[in-house]
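Kindly inspect the following:
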Amino acid sequence: MALLAKAVRQRQNYLINELVRYGYFKASNGRQLYKLSLTELEQVHVKVKSTFGKQLKEGE
C-alpha cells in the first residue's frame, strides 16, 4: 500500500507542477492545488491543457 500512496503523491506533484507552469495556481472554486484530490487534479489538468490547446489553434 505504501507504493500506491507514493505513486499517488508523485502524480499529484507532477500535475501541480504542470498546472503552475501554465499559470494555474488555484482551482476555480478558490481551493489551493495541493488540497485537491488526484482525481480533481487530473480533471483540472485536462481542462487547462484543452483550453491552452484551443488558444494555440486559434492563434494559427
